[in-house]
Structures are given as structure tokens and as C-alpha cells.
Design a protein that fits this description.
heterodimer; A: 300 residues; B: 316 residues; mainly alpha; 0% strand
Chain lengths: 300, 316
Amino acid sequence: MIEGARELTLRSPKDARGVTKRRAFPTLRRFLSARLALPSAIVILVAVAMAIAGPLFAPHDPLVLSTETPSSTPSLDHPLGTDKLGRDVLSRIIYGARPTLMVGLGAVGVAVAMGTVVGLLAGYSPKLVSYPLLRAVDVVYAFPALMLILGLIAVLGRGLLPLIIAISVINVPVIARLLRAQVLTIKERDYVTAVRALGASAPRVVLLHVLPNSFGPVLVQATVLVGYAILAEASLNYLGLGIPPPDPTWGGEVAAGFRYIRTDPLLSIVPGMAIVLLVLSFNLAGDALRDALDPKLKGR
Amino acid sequence: MFVRFVLSKVASTIVVLFLVSLAVFGMIRALPGDPVTLALGQGFSYNEESAERARDRLGLDEPIVVQYVKWLGRVAEGDLGHSLRGQGEVLPAVLDRLPITAQLGAAGLLVSVLIAVPAGTIAAAKRGTNLDRFVSLFAMGGVAMPSFWLAILLILLFGVRFDLFPLYGFVSVWDDPVEFVKHVTLPAIALGVTLAGPLIRQVRSSVLDVLHEDYIRTAHAKGLSGRVVLVRHALRNALLPVLTLLGLQTAHVLGGAVVIEQVFSIPGVGRLAVQGILDQDFMVVQGVVLVSAVVVVLTNMFVDILYGYVDPRIRA
């Protein structure tokens, strides 16, 4: 408690007359004051920029084979060297950001959409509906995540869309459970009782009152899930079950480089570092978001 | 009382297994292409007679519910079908490889415990210090690191640079314990570090919970040293919730093994599944998926029951 109180006084600076100044964007400020939040935000923004405008940044076409001798030694023309086929490593990493983020954000987006529907239904409908719904979603937990993804990939085939769908499936129950818990607490709050007493219908209560108030925790959870989705995407591309070559992916680059581990270890170390940095950034950003949206939870 | 608790756990396990079977059956039926061709295997002697027999065996003309019941009956008898690529029956193929994955998984879990228990305890004892922050950063890094990448770093350092461990392959512990340790060390570390993250957090928070208990104060008051209190009194009681988490890790172990087995060319179930997809041998893939889900569900049931046995408060 004392710690919290001290923080409060630190957070509301007073000017010379002792009047507390109100600062703009309090949530953003709290977010950025969290540990390593700024560097993580920068990493994520850089990755997003690479995904959107990769061709503008990349020094070379990632698919074009160079006529020079392949060399992993950095040069002015190839800052991270070339791979064994003479393709520019830096360009391949920049282009690899796109599938990584598309799968990461896409899978979590789909999971949030589906999980929200299931979670709201499960939280606000009678047990006859909610119980089977929850059990059905929980079955996902019975499978080792990667095994279930493999099974789905076997059915759906390989490529960007199957990756997004398969990875979203394992994330639906996480969001559904979270939202259901939110609904169960929020629907007991006084203001919800009040609007219900005023005659608001169930859909109205759920959509106008419960959902907006659950937004924070879902956003926090989703941010962390993006990191895990990226890990899953990288693993599948490493296994050769994701996006088929020659299109560059970070996981695929690590796998391709692994063959030359004795002579050119950097070929798999560098793309792996990109994965670690981005996943770590999403995890840290999730933590920072949690602290920013709900300062009471700080440090838990 | 305990019997009732066990029975309720068994009942809910049966429900989950039923749903698992529905999910896997649904996956098989969602497969593109003709189920008969699938059952016979592509490129094999396809003629009207064998196709008719397969259609009959699979009951494709019957309502879907009947098909499901028939399929479930076959699965219950241990018939998971035949490999589409001439690898024989699916279930024996999976069960042959399961012990290899189990050994790898056990070694990986051991590594994660060896990391997480000391790290989590120290972080709790030194709460708020730089050491605590370092441990939590390590836990976060372990979670964020793709296991295959960590495996490659380990291979590079201990396999290529120092030549201490073999780079690939596997020897069963029953065949040659020394070679087993040599072969399993790097894969187990790669698997263990990624599993350690959540475990460290759990150990830290449950040690922190216990440290506030009265008996810890009493132990201090008796004049015992901080270390003795921490290890003998706090850690011992804090490990119970950790055990549950360890049971829940089975799913992560099996999932993680898929990748690790591929990196180190270990012939376990994960590699079987990956090869199944590459060969488009769907029967093998569904077999591995089904068996691994059953393993996870049963392990969780046993852990739940064990937990209820050790801690009677859970049974309520």
C-alpha cells in the first residue's frame, strides 16, 4: 500500500502553487513508463513498418540470386551477407516480417473475434447453453497445441491462410475463458443491475456495457498471444509445414541456415534473433499494457 | 469421500475423451478428397472391388452417426487404420516411438525443474532486487525463444565448437544409459529452458505465498538460519502447486518435442507426425494427434487425483 501511495504522489506532479497538473494521454504515459516498454514498442513498430513497406527498405529483391560468390561476410552491398544461393539475407529478413505479422496478428484477430462470441454467450446464457459451449472449447486444451496445429495443417494444407486458421483455433479458448470471467463479474455490478432494471435487453447489456468494460483485459491478453502465435508460426515454418519456399520466413531461414551450421552459423542465428526480439517485445508490451490499463495490478 | 472425488474426475475425463474423439473424427471427415482413396492409400492397387470393400468397411453409405460409432469402436480396439504410405498399422507405429518421446520429455522436464526451483526460490527470497529482476527476465526470455533456435545455439556451442555432445540421433536409456545421457543432454536443455519460464513464475509466487505463513515466522523465531527456513520449510510446502503445473506441462512437452525431435533427428512421435504431413500420410498424423491427446488427458487426470490425495482441501 505504501508503495502505491508513493507512486501516486510521484505520478501527479504539482506546480509551484501546489495545483496538480493533469497530463494528456495518461494511459499512454503509464504504458511508456513500464520497464522496457519503449524499446518493445519501437521493435514492434519497426517490424510493422518492414511488413508494410518492406520493398522500400530492402536493399535487394529477396528472391533474386546474386551472381557474385555467396558469402556470409557482411559487405556494403549485403550488410548481413548472402545465403548459399546468393540471396541477400537482410532483404529476406525484412520481407519475412510480413508473413510473421500477418499470421501473428491474423490468428489472434480471428481468435479474439471467435473467442468473444463464445465467451459472451457462455457468460450470459443459461447453463444449458454455456456448459456444452465451454466444454467444446476446452477440448482444445486436451491436445498439445503444436500437435493440434499439425492435425489441422494436415487437413487444411499449407500456406498463409491455413497457418492463420490453425493457430487461431488454439487461442480461441484463452479469449473465451477470459471474456466469460469478465462477463460473470461485470454482470453483477451495480450499473449493470441498474440498466437491467431500466428494461435493457440482454444483447444491449452485453454489447453496450459488458463488452466495452472487458476491452482492457482482452487487449492485454491478445498482445501476449500475438507473441505466442509468432512462435508457433516460426516453428511451423522451421518444420517446413508453413509457407512454402522460396518466399522468405524467419523460421524457414533458420532451418535453411542450419544446414551450414559448421561453416556459416550466422545464417540461422540472425533470423532467429529477429523472432526472439519480436516475441519478447510483444510479451513486454502486454505486461506494460496491463499496468497501464489497470495500475492496481502493477508488479503482480 | 476420496472415492467420490476420483469417480468425478474419471467421469469428466471420459467426457473430454469423447469430445476429443469427436474432434479427431471431424478432422478425418473434413479431409479433402475421397475417403476411399484415402483409406486405400494413393498409388496403391485401386480397383472397384477393393474400393467397394473399403466403402463397406468404413460404412460410408451409412448415416454419419453410425460411421462415428463404428470408427470409435475400431479405435477402442486399437485400430487406428493403416499408413497411406505403406508403413503398416498406425497404432503400433505410434506406440513404438512414444517411449522415445517420453524419455526426451522426462529429461526436458527434469532440466526445467533443475532450473526453475532454485531460480524461483532465489527470486522469491530476494524479491525486488536486481537478482529477482534478472530471473524474471530470464523466464521471459525462455518463453520468447523458439526452441529450435536455442537448440541450434546449443549445437553450435557444445556440439560444433567444443565437440562435447553428439549433434543428432537418440539412444534409449535402457540400451545404454551413458550414450542416452550424451544424446539427450542438448535436446533436453533446449526443451527444458522453454518449459522453465512458467515454472519459474509458479515457484516464485508460491514460495512468496508460503513465506507469509505463521510457521515460517515460528521457524525464524526458533533461530533457524534463513537458508534452512527457505529450503526446509518454505520450499517444501511451496512445491505442491508446482507439481500440478508440472503435470499440466505434458501437453507442452509433447508439443515442444515435435520441434526438438526434428532438430536433433530423434525418431519420436513428433517427428512421425511431421513426416506424416510431409508425406501426406494423414492416417499417421491423426493417429499421433489422437494418442497424444489421450496421453495428455490421462496424465492430467492422474495429476488431479494425486493432488486430491496429497491435499484433501482440493477434494471439496
